[in-house]
């Protein structure tokens, strides 16, 4: 997500790390421990962002070693607009890799819809990410990671034979997996050469210590911590409440990843549960397409066509790409639409129901021979290794699995859980940590069942393709007395995917006075993915609902890895 946070560069620039080209020539971060600076946010056009402040806090680089120096955490604050002001809510947009400064300064009002206007919204770029320093700069030449990845499996995805009994499928996947392993190894060795030990300071354990440290700077000693985390932000939330169980104020995790699996299992073993609702969401896509008909969903031949028939045509097209990739001469970056890329496109699209009309249009165009929209969308929103720096510093070290082991687990998951297994390995780049070159100063691995001084609110959708309800139920089971689970009956990633006034009311009540939904509470959503079906969005709905269709939705800020920006900006 390179563009949105550029607006804040002016406010936070000043002591950027410099690399003189040789290994380990990392300048120390400037500033004095405990400094807290917040002043105006200057947009790229030179204008001040209204109502928002940008700045930074200087925190310990290594909480176990005071002599290691300091880190600079970029901050963005959107003040409470109602009084009396109740305090500060830290927010995180997910990823890992999602910068939070822009989330607070641009989406502050949308967050206040969820938590109440009497709270300040405090976003921060977690260490290693965005404007915070040390920055993750493993690939130093411009475009060099792009060049490194282009058309490799990490870019184009795995091509999977539609015929699972095809004896050529397994050897093909194993060869592809060997490439992937070597690519992980190469990129992490590049990082070892450019960043050396500096890369070990990223990671969620240090990030939650930063939250605690900054909260004390903002609100004083022993003040409680309030937090709203989406997607990977729910991992951060679980670390936060378990590392600081006595400091929990109001904490919401929305779109839940199981932090225990995140910390303790290699990704290929996590995906079984990760993908629990993915194919169900895919089915809903075709049901909604059928309901709305060809005017909004050109994949349908007629309104109320059998959704299975629509799905069969799409699957035949995607599977056909395995043997015959589509030439795409007119993409921004001309190339080929492969089976792996098509699956990545669909998987990314499932998470954002508001993009479904565009997803349908892009697919229909490709089925008619023009794959440019699909290829442009999956072409990377390039980042450095920020995400690996978090996931590999978080993951418990494990014995390197062989390519065969990963492939056999993948084929099994493909058969029993989801056709998107091999897509998630690429779209959620947390793999290859067996080659990670450093060990972080601290790595929290549990327990995840601490007794909290205030309960946490967990929100899960019934059909979230990335963070299924089973995860929310599992995390609730770790914290039976210290949490409540609110279920939103809807599709998409996090409760912000489709607006539910009911969910918003529960969230606001929790932040207002700690009221939790009764066990078993299920909220309905107030809108549908395809606009023709959402006429019921009434003019008296709250502002979040009124903003539907515009650019400014909270879900627009959720950070979803390599192709999230393109997903949101589809034609
Ligand atoms: C936000 O509130 C703080 C006091 O908590 C104040 O110093 C600051 O000027 C306010 N910022 C804006 C943009 O209103
Ligand atoms: C890439 O690097 C070259 C040489 O260092 C420089 O002239 C050019 O402006 C850079 N391009 C971008 C897009 O940063
Ligand atoms: C799948 O592959 C097997 C083994 O090659 C073959 O016998 C079978 O006909 C194939 N099925 C389809 C639907 O192509
Ligand atoms: C917070 O605690 C620190 C060290 O325990 C102390 O030096 C500082 O004065 C305290 N600050 C406030 C505002 O109480
Ligand atoms: C999802 O998880 C539930 C509970 O573990 C299980 O019963 C169900 O079969 C899973 N569904 C898929 C598609 O894996
Ligand atoms: C990382 O670099 C250090 C210092 O050059 C070296 O000793 C170490 O073996 C490297 N680690 C890996 C995994 O390449
Ligand atoms: C918390 O979980 C650990 C395993 O991670 C278990 O040994 C312990 O008994 C659990 N504690 C409680 C209070 O349930
Ligand atoms: C908590 O706050 C909500 C929202 O303001 C309100 O509807 C509810 O009555 C309050 N509950 C209690 C117990 O104060």
TrEMBL record:
The keyword Iron does not apply. SUPFAM superfamilies: alpha/beta-Hydrolases. Keywords: Hydrolase, Signal. Residues 88-289 form the AB hydrolase-1 domain. One of its GO terms (molecular function) is hydrolase activity. Pfam families: Abhydrolase_1, Abhydrolase_4. Residues 423-523 form the Peptidase S33 tripeptidyl aminopeptidase-like C-terminal domain. Residues 1-25 form the signal peptide. Belongs to the peptidase S33 family. This is Transporter. It comes from Ganoderma sinense ZZ0214-1.
């Amino acid at each position: 997500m390179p563009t949105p946070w550029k607006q804040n560069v002016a406010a936070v620039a000043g002591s950027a790390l410099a690399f003189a080209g040789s290994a380990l020539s990392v300048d120390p971060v400037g500033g004095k421990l405990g400094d807290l600076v917040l002043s105006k946010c200057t947009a790229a056009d030179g204008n001040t962002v209204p109502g928002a402040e940008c700045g930074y806090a200087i925190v310990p680089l290594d909480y176990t070693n005071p002599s290691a120096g300091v880190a600079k955490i970029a901050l963005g604050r959107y003040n409470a607009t109602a009084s009396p002001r109740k305090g500060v809510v830290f927010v995180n947009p997910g990823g890992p890799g999602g910068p939070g400064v822009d989330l607070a300064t641009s989406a502050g009002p949308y967050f206040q819809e969820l938590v109440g206007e009497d709270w300040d919204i405090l976003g921060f770029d977690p260490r290693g990410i965005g404007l915070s320093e040390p920055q993750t700069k493993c690939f130093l030449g411009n475009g060099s990671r792009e060049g490194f990845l282009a058309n490799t499996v990490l870019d184009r995805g795995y091509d999977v034979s539609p015929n699972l009994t095809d004896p050529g499928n397994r050897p093909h996947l194993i060869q592809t997996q060997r490439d992937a392993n070597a690519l992980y190894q190469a990129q992490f060795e590049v990082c070892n050469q450019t960043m050396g030990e500096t890369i070990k300071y990223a990671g969620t354990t240090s990030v939650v210590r930063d939250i605690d440290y900054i909260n004390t700077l903002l609100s004083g000693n022993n003040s409680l911590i309030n937090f709203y985390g989406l997607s990977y932000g729910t991992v951060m939330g679980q670390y936060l409440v378990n590392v600081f169980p006595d400091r929990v104020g109001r904490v919401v995790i929305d779109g839940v990843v199981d932090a225990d699996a995140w910390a303790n299992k290699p990704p290929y073993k996590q995906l079984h549960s990760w993908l629990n609702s993915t194919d169900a969401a895919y089915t809903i896509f075709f049901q909604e397409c059928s309901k709305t008909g060809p005017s909004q969903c050109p994949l349908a031949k007629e309104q109320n066509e059998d959704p299975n028939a629509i799905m069969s045509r799409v699957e035949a097209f995607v599977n056909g790409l395995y043997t015959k990739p589509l030439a795409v001469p007119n993409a921004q970056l001309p190339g080929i639409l492969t089976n792996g890329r098509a699956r990545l496109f669909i998987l990314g699209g499932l998470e954002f129901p508001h993009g479904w009309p565009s997803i349908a249009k892009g697919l229909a165009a490709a089925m008619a021979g023009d794959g440019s929209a699909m290829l442009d969308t999956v072409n990377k929103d390039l980042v450095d290794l920020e995400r690996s720096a978090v996931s590999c510093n978080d993951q418990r070290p494990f014995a390197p699995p062989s390519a065969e082991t990963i492939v056999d687990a993948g084929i099994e998951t493909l058969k029993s859980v989801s056709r998107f297994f091999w897509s998630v390995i690429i779209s959620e780049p947390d793999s290859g940590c067996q080659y990670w070159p450093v060990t972080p100063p601290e790595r929290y691995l549990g327990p995840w069942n601490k007794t909290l001084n205030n309960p946490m609110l967990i929100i899960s959708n019934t059909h979230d393709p990335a963070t299924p309800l089973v995860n929310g139920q599992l995390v609730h089971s770790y914290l039976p007395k210290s949490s409540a689970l609110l279920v939103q009956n809807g599709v998409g990633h996090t409760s912000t995917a489709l607006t539910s006034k009911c969910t918003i009311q529960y969230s606001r009540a929790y932040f207002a006075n700690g009221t939790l939904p009764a066990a078993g509470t299920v909220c309905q959503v107030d809108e549908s993915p395809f606009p023709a079906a959402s006429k019921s969005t009434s003019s008296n709905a709250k502002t979040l609902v009124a903003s539907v269709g515009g650019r400014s939705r909270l879900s627009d800020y959720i950070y979803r890895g390599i192709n999230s920006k393109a997903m949101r900006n589809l034609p």
